[in-house]
Amino acid sequence: MSLPIPEVIGTIAELRDRLSLTTQNFAVAGADTRVVLVPTMGALHAGHLALARRARELGDTVVVSVFVNPLQFGAGEDLDQYPRTLDADVSALAELGVPYVFAPTAQEMYPDGAAETRVGAGPVGSLYEGAARPGHFDGMLTVVAKLINIVDPDAVVFGQKDAQQVHLIERMVAELNFRASVDVVPTVREEGGLALSSRNQYLDPVQRESARSLSAGLAAAASVASQGAPAALAAAHAVIDAQPLVKLDYLVVVHPQTFLPVDDDYRGPARMLVAALVGTTRLIDNVPLDIT
Protein backbone atom coordinates (compact mmCIF):
# COMPACT_ATOMS: atom_id res chain seq x y z
CA MET A 1 0.00 0.00 0.00
CA SER A 2 1.40 3.37 -1.00
CA LEU A 3 1.91 6.00 1.66
CA PRO A 4 0.12 9.35 1.50
CA ILE A 5 1.81 12.19 -0.36
CA PRO A 6 3.38 14.69 2.07
CA GLU A 7 1.49 17.93 2.51
CA VAL A 8 3.49 20.75 0.97
CA ILE A 9 3.17 23.91 3.07
CA GLY A 10 4.43 27.29 1.94
CA THR A 11 3.73 29.66 4.81
CA ILE A 12 4.96 29.85 8.38
CA ALA A 13 1.47 30.43 9.76
CA GLU A 14 0.02 27.40 7.99
CA LEU A 15 2.85 25.14 9.13
CA ARG A 16 2.44 26.20 12.73
CA ASP A 17 -1.32 25.57 12.49
CA ARG A 18 -0.74 22.06 11.11
CA LEU A 19 1.79 21.19 13.79
CA SER A 20 -0.46 22.54 16.53
CA LEU A 21 -3.38 20.47 15.24
CA THR A 22 -1.21 17.36 15.02
CA THR A 23 -0.08 17.81 18.62
CA GLN A 24 -3.69 18.27 19.73
CA ASN A 25 -4.78 15.11 17.88
CA PHE A 26 -2.07 13.07 19.59
CA ALA A 27 -3.10 14.53 22.95
CA VAL A 28 -6.74 13.58 22.38
CA ALA A 29 -5.57 10.04 21.72
CA GLY A 30 -3.66 10.10 24.99
CA ALA A 31 -0.22 10.17 23.37
CA ASP A 32 2.65 12.58 22.94
CA THR A 33 4.28 13.36 19.62
CA ARG A 34 7.89 14.20 18.89
CA VAL A 35 8.47 16.71 16.11
CA VAL A 36 11.65 16.27 14.07
CA LEU A 37 13.02 18.77 11.54
CA VAL A 38 15.25 17.97 8.56
CA PRO A 39 16.48 21.20 6.94
CA THR A 40 17.46 20.83 3.26
CA MET A 41 17.82 22.94 0.15
CA GLY A 42 16.08 20.29 -1.95
CA ALA A 43 17.44 18.36 -4.94
CA LEU A 44 17.30 15.39 -2.58
CA HIS A 45 19.59 12.38 -3.01
CA ALA A 46 20.10 9.21 -0.99
CA GLY A 47 22.06 11.11 1.65
CA HIS A 48 19.13 13.44 2.32
CA LEU A 49 16.74 10.49 2.40
CA ALA A 50 18.91 8.86 5.07
CA LEU A 51 18.32 11.98 7.17
CA ALA A 52 14.56 11.66 6.65
CA ARG A 53 14.65 7.98 7.61
CA ARG A 54 16.49 8.85 10.79
CA ALA A 55 13.93 11.56 11.52
CA ARG A 56 11.15 9.00 11.19
CA GLU A 57 12.94 6.85 13.77
CA LEU A 58 13.22 9.79 16.16
CA GLY A 59 9.67 11.11 16.00
CA ASP A 60 6.12 10.74 14.79
CA THR A 61 5.85 14.14 13.10
CA VAL A 62 8.58 14.90 10.57
CA VAL A 63 9.01 18.20 8.77
CA VAL A 64 11.46 18.30 5.87
CA SER A 65 12.16 21.86 4.83
CA VAL A 66 13.05 22.57 1.20
CA PHE A 67 14.40 26.09 0.91
CA VAL A 68 17.25 27.41 -1.22
CA ASN A 69 18.54 29.98 1.23
CA PRO A 70 19.88 33.10 -0.51
CA LEU A 71 21.75 34.23 2.61
CA GLN A 72 24.30 31.44 2.27
CA PHE A 73 25.17 32.17 -1.36
CA GLY A 74 27.93 34.69 -1.99
CA ALA A 75 28.66 36.90 -4.97
CA GLY A 76 29.29 34.80 -8.05
CA GLU A 77 27.78 31.64 -6.57
CA ASP A 78 25.07 29.74 -8.43
CA LEU A 79 21.91 30.71 -6.51
CA ASP A 80 19.79 30.99 -9.66
CA GLN A 81 21.21 27.77 -11.13
CA TYR A 82 20.83 25.72 -7.94
CA PRO A 83 18.60 22.73 -8.85
CA ARG A 84 15.01 23.01 -7.70
CA THR A 85 13.18 19.67 -7.95
CA LEU A 86 10.31 20.00 -5.49
CA ASP A 87 7.95 17.52 -7.19
CA ALA A 88 10.63 14.82 -7.27
CA ASP A 89 11.62 15.63 -3.69
CA VAL A 90 8.04 15.26 -2.46
CA SER A 91 7.66 11.94 -4.29
CA ALA A 92 10.84 10.59 -2.71
CA LEU A 93 9.74 11.69 0.76
CA ALA A 94 6.32 10.08 0.25
CA GLU A 95 8.04 6.69 0.12
CA LEU A 96 9.36 7.33 3.63
CA GLY A 97 6.07 8.45 5.16
CA VAL A 98 7.11 12.06 5.76
CA PRO A 99 3.90 14.00 6.51
CA TYR A 100 5.03 17.60 5.95
CA VAL A 101 7.28 19.40 3.49
CA PHE A 102 7.85 23.05 4.33
CA ALA A 103 8.70 24.82 1.06
CA PRO A 104 8.57 28.58 1.67
CA THR A 105 9.59 31.27 -0.76
CA ALA A 106 12.37 33.72 -0.01
CA GLN A 107 9.66 36.37 0.44
CA GLU A 108 8.03 34.24 3.13
CA MET A 109 11.29 33.69 5.01
CA TYR A 110 12.65 37.21 4.51
CA PRO A 111 9.63 39.50 3.95
CA ASP A 112 11.73 42.66 4.32
CA GLY A 113 14.53 41.46 2.07
CA ALA A 114 17.87 40.13 3.24
CA ALA A 115 17.75 39.80 7.01
CA GLU A 116 19.71 42.45 8.87
CA THR A 117 19.75 40.36 12.04
CA ARG A 118 21.98 37.33 11.53
CA VAL A 119 23.64 34.63 13.59
CA GLY A 120 27.40 35.02 13.47
CA ALA A 121 29.49 31.88 13.03
CA GLY A 122 32.47 33.34 14.88
CA PRO A 123 36.14 32.68 14.09
CA VAL A 124 35.64 29.04 13.04
CA GLY A 125 33.09 30.24 10.49
CA SER A 126 35.86 32.00 8.57
CA LEU A 127 38.06 28.89 8.32
CA TYR A 128 38.03 26.01 5.80
CA GLU A 129 34.68 26.24 3.97
CA GLY A 130 34.20 29.73 5.41
CA ALA A 131 37.46 30.91 3.86
CA ALA A 132 36.31 29.71 0.45
CA ARG A 133 32.77 31.09 0.91
CA PRO A 134 32.87 34.23 3.09
CA GLY A 135 29.60 34.77 4.96
CA HIS A 136 28.26 31.35 4.04
CA PHE A 137 28.06 30.05 7.58
CA ASP A 138 26.42 33.21 8.93
CA GLY A 139 23.67 32.73 6.34
CA MET A 140 23.38 29.02 7.08
CA LEU A 141 23.13 29.50 10.85
CA THR A 142 20.59 32.29 10.41
CA VAL A 143 18.22 30.17 8.36
CA VAL A 144 18.64 27.13 10.62
CA ALA A 145 17.86 29.29 13.65
CA LYS A 146 14.75 30.60 11.88
CA LEU A 147 13.61 27.09 10.94
CA ILE A 148 14.11 25.81 14.48
CA ASN A 149 12.12 28.77 15.79
CA ILE A 150 9.34 28.21 13.24
CA VAL A 151 8.99 24.44 13.74
CA ASP A 152 10.01 24.21 17.43
CA PRO A 153 11.19 20.63 16.96
CA ASP A 154 12.28 18.15 19.59
CA ALA A 155 15.19 17.16 17.33
CA VAL A 156 16.86 18.43 14.17
CA VAL A 157 18.80 16.11 11.85
CA PHE A 158 21.94 16.82 9.82
CA GLY A 159 24.53 14.79 7.93
CA GLN A 160 28.12 14.28 9.06
CA LYS A 161 29.48 14.99 5.58
CA ASP A 162 29.18 18.71 6.31
CA ALA A 163 31.28 18.42 9.46
CA GLN A 164 32.04 22.11 9.91
CA GLN A 165 28.37 22.95 9.47
CA VAL A 166 27.43 20.35 12.09
CA HIS A 167 29.99 21.73 14.53
CA LEU A 168 28.67 25.28 14.15
CA ILE A 169 25.03 24.21 14.45
CA GLU A 170 25.71 22.16 17.59
CA ARG A 171 27.51 25.15 19.10
CA MET A 172 24.67 27.53 18.16
CA VAL A 173 22.00 25.23 19.62
CA ALA A 174 23.93 24.94 22.87
CA GLU A 175 24.90 28.59 23.22
CA LEU A 176 21.47 29.97 22.28
CA ASN A 177 19.66 27.41 24.47
CA PHE A 178 17.42 25.93 21.80
CA ARG A 179 15.51 23.01 23.26
CA ALA A 180 16.01 20.84 20.17
CA SER A 181 18.64 18.12 20.20
CA VAL A 182 20.96 17.75 17.19
CA ASP A 183 21.12 14.28 15.65
CA VAL A 184 23.97 13.59 13.23
CA VAL A 185 23.71 10.88 10.56
CA PRO A 186 26.87 9.22 9.21
CA THR A 187 27.99 10.17 5.71
CA VAL A 188 26.30 8.18 2.94
CA ARG A 189 28.71 7.09 0.23
CA GLU A 190 28.60 5.84 -3.32
CA GLU A 191 30.10 2.49 -4.20
CA GLY A 192 33.80 3.20 -4.21
CA GLY A 193 33.63 5.55 -1.22
CA LEU A 194 32.82 8.94 -2.74
CA ALA A 195 30.62 10.92 -0.32
CA LEU A 196 27.18 11.55 -1.76
CA SER A 197 26.63 15.14 -2.88
CA SER A 198 24.30 16.88 -5.30
CA ARG A 199 27.50 18.13 -6.96
CA ASN A 200 28.57 14.61 -7.92
CA GLN A 201 26.28 14.83 -10.95
CA TYR A 202 28.73 17.29 -12.52
CA LEU A 203 31.59 14.75 -12.53
CA ASP A 204 32.37 12.84 -15.69
CA PRO A 205 33.51 9.19 -15.30
CA VAL A 206 37.22 10.04 -15.24
CA GLN A 207 36.70 12.82 -12.71
CA ARG A 208 34.52 10.57 -10.55
CA GLU A 209 37.29 7.99 -10.41
CA SER A 210 39.79 10.68 -9.40
CA ALA A 211 37.38 12.07 -6.79
CA ARG A 212 37.39 8.72 -4.99
CA SER A 213 40.93 9.56 -3.90
CA LEU A 214 39.42 11.91 -1.30
CA SER A 215 37.74 9.13 0.68
CA ALA A 216 40.68 6.81 -0.02
CA GLY A 217 43.08 9.41 1.36
CA LEU A 218 40.96 9.83 4.48
CA ALA A 219 40.89 6.07 4.97
CA ALA A 220 44.67 5.96 4.64
CA ALA A 221 44.95 8.70 7.26
CA ALA A 222 42.69 6.85 9.67
CA SER A 223 44.76 3.70 9.30
CA VAL A 224 47.93 5.42 10.57
CA ALA A 225 46.34 7.92 12.97
CA SER A 226 47.92 6.20 15.97
CA GLN A 227 51.26 7.52 14.70
CA GLY A 228 50.10 11.13 15.06
CA ALA A 229 48.59 13.95 13.01
CA PRO A 230 51.67 14.48 10.77
CA ALA A 231 51.64 10.80 9.77
CA ALA A 232 47.91 10.94 9.05
CA LEU A 233 48.33 14.03 6.87
CA ALA A 234 51.25 12.47 5.00
CA ALA A 235 49.24 9.31 4.30
CA ALA A 236 46.28 11.29 2.97
CA HIS A 237 48.52 13.50 0.82
CA ALA A 238 50.22 10.46 -0.69
CA VAL A 239 46.89 9.19 -2.02
CA ILE A 240 45.26 12.47 -3.02
CA ASP A 241 48.31 14.20 -4.51
CA ALA A 242 48.77 11.27 -6.89
CA GLN A 243 45.63 12.35 -8.75
CA PRO A 244 46.41 15.24 -11.14
CA LEU A 245 42.72 16.08 -11.62
CA VAL A 246 42.30 16.73 -7.89
CA LYS A 247 43.31 20.21 -6.72
CA LEU A 248 43.39 20.40 -2.93
CA ASP A 249 41.91 23.42 -1.22
CA TYR A 250 42.63 22.24 2.31
CA LEU A 251 43.55 19.08 4.21
CA VAL A 252 43.62 19.58 7.95
CA VAL A 253 43.31 17.72 11.25
CA VAL A 254 41.10 19.54 13.75
CA HIS A 255 40.10 19.16 17.37
CA PRO A 256 36.48 17.92 17.56
CA GLN A 257 35.50 20.43 20.25
CA THR A 258 37.15 23.59 18.90
CA PHE A 259 37.48 22.72 15.21
CA LEU A 260 40.89 24.39 15.24
CA PRO A 261 43.96 22.62 13.81
CA VAL A 262 45.71 20.33 16.28
CA ASP A 263 49.41 20.53 17.10
CA ASP A 264 51.81 17.94 15.71
CA ASP A 265 52.17 16.31 19.14
CA TYR A 266 48.41 16.21 19.88
CA ARG A 267 46.95 13.00 21.25
CA GLY A 268 43.23 12.26 21.43
CA PRO A 269 40.15 12.25 19.19
CA ALA A 270 40.33 14.40 16.06
CA ARG A 271 38.73 14.84 12.66
CA MET A 272 40.39 15.21 9.27
CA LEU A 273 38.71 17.58 6.81
CA VAL A 274 39.36 17.77 3.09
CA ALA A 275 38.11 19.97 0.27
CA ALA A 276 39.21 19.86 -3.34
CA LEU A 277 38.30 20.83 -6.88
CA VAL A 278 37.84 17.97 -9.30
CA GLY A 279 37.53 19.69 -12.64
CA THR A 280 35.23 22.57 -11.75
CA THR A 281 33.37 20.65 -9.03
CA ARG A 282 34.19 21.40 -5.40
CA LEU A 283 33.88 18.42 -3.06
CA ILE A 284 34.28 18.01 0.70
CA ASP A 285 34.66 15.04 3.02
CA ASN A 286 35.87 14.16 6.49
CA VAL A 287 36.72 11.26 8.78
CA PRO A 288 37.21 10.82 12.55
CA LEU A 289 40.74 10.01 13.70
CA ASP A 290 41.83 8.31 16.89
CA ILE A 291 45.27 9.79 17.56
CA THR A 292 46.40 7.81 20.60
TrEMBL record:
<comment type="pathway">
    <text>Cofactor biosynthesis; (R)-pantothenate biosynthesis; (R)-pantothenate from (R)-pantoate and beta-alanine: step 1/1.</text>
</comment>
<feature type="binding site">
    <location>
        <position position="72"/>
    </location>
    <ligand>
        <name>beta-alanine</name>
    </ligand>
</feature>
<dbReference type="InterPro" id="IPR042176">
    <property type="entry name" value="Pantoate_ligase_C"/>
</dbReference>
<dbReference type="GO" id="GO:0005829">
    <property type="term" value="C:cytosol"/>
</dbReference>
<keyword id="KW-0067">ATP-binding</keyword>
<dbReference type="GO" id="GO:0015940">
    <property type="term" value="P:pantothenate biosynthetic process"/>
</dbReference>
<keyword id="KW-0566">Pantothenate biosynthesis</keyword>
<dbReference type="GO" id="GO:0005524">
    <property type="term" value="F:ATP binding"/>
</dbReference>
<keyword id="KW-0436">Ligase</keyword>
<feature type="binding site">
    <location>
        <position position="72"/>
    </location>
    <ligand>
        <name>(R)-pantoate</name>
    </ligand>
</feature>
<feature type="binding site">
    <location>
        <begin position="159"/>
        <end position="162"/>
    </location>
    <ligand>
        <name>ATP</name>
    </ligand>
</feature>
<dbReference type="InterPro" id="IPR003721">
    <property type="entry name" value="Pantoate_ligase"/>
</dbReference>
<feature type="binding site">
    <location>
        <begin position="41"/>
        <end position="48"/>
    </location>
    <ligand>
        <name>ATP</name>
    </ligand>
</feature>
<dbReference type="GO" id="GO:0004592">
    <property type="term" value="F:pantoate-beta-alanine ligase activity"/>
</dbReference>
<dbReference type="InterPro" id="IPR004821">
    <property type="entry name" value="Cyt_trans-like"/>
</dbReference>
<keyword id="KW-0547">Nucleotide-binding</keyword>
<keyword id="KW-0963">Cytoplasm</keyword>
<feature type="binding site">
    <location>
        <begin position="196"/>
        <end position="199"/>
    </location>
    <ligand>
        <name>ATP</name>
    </ligand>
</feature>
<protein>
    <recommendedName>
        <fullName>Pantothenate synthetase</fullName>
        <ecNumber>6.3.2.1</ecNumber>
    </recommendedName>
</protein>
<comment type="similarity">
    <text>Belongs to the pantothenate synthetase family.</text>
</comment>
<comment type="function">
    <text>Catalyzes the condensation of pantoate with beta-alanine in an ATP-dependent reaction via a pantoyl-adenylate intermediate.</text>
</comment>
<dbReference type="Pfam" id="PF02569">
    <property type="entry name" value="Pantoate_ligase"/>
</dbReference>
<feature type="binding site">
    <location>
        <position position="188"/>
    </location>
    <ligand>
        <name>ATP</name>
    </ligand>
</feature>
<feature type="active site" description="Proton donor">
    <location>
        <position position="48"/>
    </location>
</feature>
<comment type="subunit">
    <text>Homodimer.</text>
</comment>
<feature type="binding site">
    <location>
        <position position="165"/>
    </location>
    <ligand>
        <name>(R)-pantoate</name>
    </ligand>
</feature>
<dbReference type="InterPro" id="IPR014729">
    <property type="entry name" value="Rossmann-like_a/b/a_fold"/>
</dbReference>
